[in-house]
Structures are given as C-alpha cells and as structure tokens.
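Schema walk-through. Below, the input block comes first and the output block second. Nothing else is stored per chain. Lengths vary across the set, and this one has 425 residues.
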Amino acid sequence: MSPIVICIALFVVMLVLFFTNKIPMSFTALAAMVALVFFGCLDSSAAIATFGSNTVITMASMFVVAAGLTRTQMINNVTRLLYKVTEGSFTKVLASYVVITCIIGQFVPSIVAIFALVHPLVQNMCDRMNISPSKMMYPIAIAAVSTSFIIEPIGPYAAWYVTQNGYMESYGWTSTQLNMWNETAVFLPVGIVTILLAIFVVPRFLPDQPERPITAIGGRKLQEQAPLSPVREFLGYGVFVAVILGLMLGYTSWQVTLIGAIVLVASGVLTEREAIENMNMSTVLLYVGVSAFGTALAQTGAAEMLADVFSKMLDGITNGYIVGFTFYVVGFLMTSLLYNRAVSTVLIPLVVITCSSIGCDPRGPIILVALSTMSSLVTPMATAVVPMAMNAGGYSAKTCLKVGLIPGVVRGIVGTLIAMTLYPM
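--- output ---
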C-alpha cells in the first residue's frame, strides 16, 4: 500500500475519532503522529521537530504571558468597565471583543498570540455575565483568523504582493501585477461581513453549554488569589505591553513570547507551578499531532495530488467567477487538511500555471486562495487557533465543522464576487 493511501486512511481514522470524542483529542492526534512514523509516511525527525516549532513555543509561552496579565487586576478592571459601557448586553460585549480582536490583528503578526491575548478577557467576562464561554470563544477565533491582516499596507504582510508578483513572473505571467491595495480591496469588505457574521449569526449555532471539558480555566484560579504587590502588578502590565510591541515590531514571535514568560516567572508575578499549569498542554499537544499530519500529507505528495485533481476540474471552464470560486474551495479544503501557510506554498504556483494556460488573469484567484487560507476553521488542522478555541469553549469537532462552514461559505461567495469583478478573467 502506497504512503499516500496510508496517510489518507490514517487521516480519516483520526477524523472519526475526533468526531466520536471517545479519546481525548490531544492523545488521538499524538497516536496518529506515531502511526504516521511507523508506516513510513513521516520522517521521525520531522515528527520530533513539530514539538519545537515556532508555533508550539509561541503558543505555550503566550499562554503564560496571558496568565501573567490575568494575575494582575487589569482583566477585572477591563471587564467591569466594558460591562458597564455595554450595559451587560451579550451582543454588545461580543461585538466589542470581536472588533478589538480585529484591530489587534492588523498589527500583531501571530493569530495564535492574538487569540491567547483576548481569550482571558472573554473568559472573565463570561464568568461575570454567568454565561458559558461556548457562546463567545468561537466568534473570537473567527475574528482572530479571518479578520487579521485585512488592511495590507499597515499589516505585517505589507510586502505580500511582491512575493506573488515573483510567482507570476516565474511561471510566465507578465501581463498584470498586484499592488499593495489589491488584496485589501477584497479582504476589507469580506472582513466586515465576517465581523457581522461572528457577532449576529454564529452565536445562534453554538451550544449553550460546553460539549467537552474546558481546559483553559487556569486564569480563574489566578484571579481568586491575593493581589500582587505594586511592583509585580506593574511588571505584569509591563511584560504584556513589551510582548505586544515586540510582536508588532516584527521580532521573532517565539523569542519575544518566551522571554516574556521567563521574566514573569523570574520576577515572581507567576510561580513555576502557575506557569506550567497555564501552558495548556492539551491544546499544545493537539496542535503538535495535527501539525505532523499536515507535514505528512505534504511529504507523501497527497497535498499535490489533491491540488492536481481539483485543477483538472477547470478544464473547459471559461467563466471567471466559477474559476475563482473553484480555487477558493480548493484552498479552503486543503487548509482544512494542512496548515494555512503550507497551502499557499503548494497552491499559488498551480493557480498561476492554470490561469496562464486558460488565459485568465491570475490576480483574482491568487487573492481568493489567500482568502481561503484565512477562512477555514472547520478542523483542528486548519490553524492552531482552532484547537485553542475548542479547549477554551469546550467545542466538539462536529460543532466546529457545522459552525465553521457558515463563515467559510459566505466569505467564499462574497470574496469571489468582489475579486473576480475587480480582476475579471
């Protein structure tokens, strides 16, 4: 049996176990990773490397930084102020956090860090309002993943268009080029639609109570402890602000967040035990397992095979909207299997080659592929924020699939209409 077949078969088994929820998801993902190595679908060195990846270190460190902020009085003060301003309205509170997440996302180049920063505030507000975090965490995840970096010239990916122009030139397309505003012209209106969906539509489909145990509860224990001394209170704020500034200025995310976590423990804002308890290892290990699966799909050639199959669907199609939406769907589905950064690397060259062969301006489809990689929150494989949200909100895999399709489909339709109208075939 070929490695591709084995890899896909193991992937299906892992998904079934996720949906049945009989075994903790983190252990299911790790068991799948071991099986991939055993059957030769993944190099052991690549599997081990996932434990020390930039995202893993950033996740664990950012949880500690967020715990340090939780240990201060800031979260309680912010919660009281926001509760007073919004008059305790669920919709107004959720709207505030969604918009805050979107604004932060224009400057902080890590959606993992963004969610880790905002979710303790949301958790504290849920406690104050006596509602389940399951009603708020997924909309915040949508905001972190799908509304970050939507204003390209001021975001961390301001030079994105230069890279894509290089791809187009390398694969023979020189008739048109992208500029720094092309992506924003599509992403910004789609982002506004996404914000409205996250506030007014998505909560209606979320469970009233967690479907699985919520593991991100360390912050509640920290808030119940005696207040910090004035010096340590100041350090708790200072480290948080320094980490945010470091991320905004483009320093390596794992280094910035890890230094922040170390300072918090060394200064006594958090004890060693508190830091370890708040690393949220079930979320980190879930990411490690599913990340290894994405690597295996790429190593075995399964990702390229899937992309080729979908590209052949475009043979004989001359309608630009169909071409654009097809590439969005391909990107969305591939992002659900691989992590979003890997999809662009695999799919963008294929987009340019396919569009050139049928005489289609590739700018619209390229933008739609980029949009699709920010739109999938239906599986834990799509982005590290999904397992973070699943543990923070107590969501099952079924709920993520069901609810994640709503913004995924709407963003695809709206994005295609805009992109393929601005950059027609």
